[in-house]
Structures are given as structure tokens and as C-alpha cells.
Specification:
Distance between the termini of chain B: 36 Å
Number of helices of chain B: 0
Number of strands of chain B: 9
Structural class of chain B: mainly beta
Number of helices of chain A: 0
Helix content of chain A: under 10%
Shape of chain A: globular
Oligomer: heterodimer
Order of helices and strands of chain B: EEEEEEEEE
Largest sheet of chain B: 6 strands, mixed
Radius of gyration of chain A: 13 Å
Radius of gyration of chain B: 13 Å
Largest interface: A-B, 23 and 26 residues
Helix content of chain B: under 10%
Strand content of chain A: over 45%
Order of helices and strands of chain A: EEEEEEEEEEE
Chain lengths: 120, 110
């Protein structure tokens, strides 16, 4: 059974960089698939942040692209998100998920999500 | 950019059929995926590629897509189906392709 688990600070100061990691178990990232990040502000809908292939190829939401970096570490079977220059608007539950084949294919396995609050 | 429009809420009595729509310009030419999200939980994929169901999803969940509207249909609605539902597509219409989610629909079981 594929499982994903997000980890990282729950509180980030404005203008700093948000960093999260998603540990994958039950499947080897190097075997394939895309791996993505999605966020959900409190009481609001889902917003896709970006996705990465096991080879390191990435694609990002154009509205966040200038601030986002997604990377993969196949040796640790995990992938990571960095979002720079955060503001209160970046406060959200952040989910990592497996994307079946890129280019907007469905996300079939999701982590439980982690709440990140941006506040001084 | 491409916009997906969902009704904020849909209400249905137990045992009846719920239909949740997702509107978008020529959405019928795209593959639509649907997620169910219960409070405090991660989304769960319930329909993908317009009308396919992942393993473990009841046959009561079905989907269709044509013209400017995609529809998630839940037959014989149960109390446990009460949740938020989101549609998703891939917008490749611009120079900056992206994954797009609808705003979500809250399904209330009366």
C-alpha cells in the first residue's frame, strides 16, 4: 500500500521560506510516476502547486512558479517543496500526492496533509 | 486562465440521486477527475478520466462529460457520502499549462 507523509515546520515567518518533505513508503519513487504538492487554505478549495517526475523534471503552477522549487531525493524515497517569500496568504494545509502520469492526470494517493501557518 | 465552476452546495435525501456539475469552456474535450473530501481528511479520488472508478470506489459513483459540463452522479446516496467534492482538469490552452481544480461543492444529505 502506497503511503505518503508530509513533514516540516508548522509555523513560518512572513518573508521566509516554507520547506516541506514528503516521505513515500510502499513504492519506490525511482520506479516512476509524478509526485505533486497541493494546498488548501482554511475553509477554501484545492490549489495545485507543482509536480515532479522521478527523473527530476518539474512543472509548476504559473501563479506560484517564481517562488516554488520542488526536488526529489530517490535515495531517501522522498520529495520536497520550497516556497519562498511567504505571506499570510500561503497559510494552508499542504498535501503531497502521487500523480499517475503528469499533465494533469489524477492524484491517486495523498498524504494526510500538514497545516502551515505564516505568522510572525 | 481556465476556470471550473461548481455549485457551492447540493442537497439530497438519502436513497436519492445527487448530481454535482463542473462547468468549463469546452470541458468535454478534457479529461475530468473527481475527488471526495470529508472534514479533516485528505481528498480521495472517486472518478477519473470522466467516468472511470478507482478500485474500491462503489459503483454508485459515476461520471459523464460533454460540451461545457461534466457531472458526478452519486446514486442511492448514503449519509456517509456527505462531503466536499472537487473536479480537476489539465489546462493546456495557454503557454503556461496547469492543473486546475473547481471551487468545490458541499454535498449535504438531508
Amino acid at each position: 500500500q502506497v503511503q505518503l507523509q508530509e513533514s516540516g515546520p508548522g509555523l513560518v515567518k512572513p518573508s521566509e521560506t516554507l520547506s516541506l518533505t514528503c516521505a513515500v513508503s510502499g513504492y519506490s519513487i525511482s520506479s516512476g510516476y509524478y509526485w505533486g504538492w497541493i494546498r488548501q487554505p482554511p475553509g477554501k478549495g484545492l490549489e495545485w502547486i507543482g509536480s515532479i517526475y522521478h527523473s527530476g523534471s518539474t512543472y509548476y503552477n504559473p501563479s506560484l512558479k517564481s517562488r516554488v522549487t520542488i526536488s526529489v531525493d530517490t535515495s531517501k524515497n522522498q520529495f520536497s517543496l520550497k516556497l519562498s517569500s511567504v505571506t499570510a496568504a500561503d497559510t494552508a494545509v499542504y498535501y503531497c500526492a502521487r500523480e499517475l502520469s503528469g499533465s494533469g492526470s489524477p492524484f491517486d494517493y495523498w498524504g494526510q496533509g500538514t497545516l502551515v501557518t505564516v505568522s510572525s | 486562465s481556465y476556470v471550473l465552476t461548481q455549485p457551492p452546495s447540493v442537497s439530497v435525501a438519502p436513497g436519492q440521486t445527487a448530481r454535482i456539475t463542473c462547468g468549463g469552456n469546452n470541458i468535454g474535450s478534457k479529461s475530468v477527475h473527481w475527488y471526495q473530501q470529508k472534514p479533516g481528511q485528505a481528498p480521495v479520488l472517486v472518478v477519473y478520466d470522466d467516468s472511470d472508478r478507482p478500485s474500491g470506489i462503489p459503483e454508485r459513483f459515476s461520471g459523464s462529460n460533454s460540451g461545457n459540463t461534466a457531472t458526478l452522479t452519486i446514486s442511492r446516496v448514503e449519509a456517509g457520502d456527505e462531503a466536499d467534492y472537487y473536479c480537476q482538469v489539465w489546462d493546456s490552452s495557454s503557454d503556461h499549462p496547469r492543473v486546475v481544480f473547481g471551487g468545490g461543492t458541499k454535498l449535504t444529505v438531508l
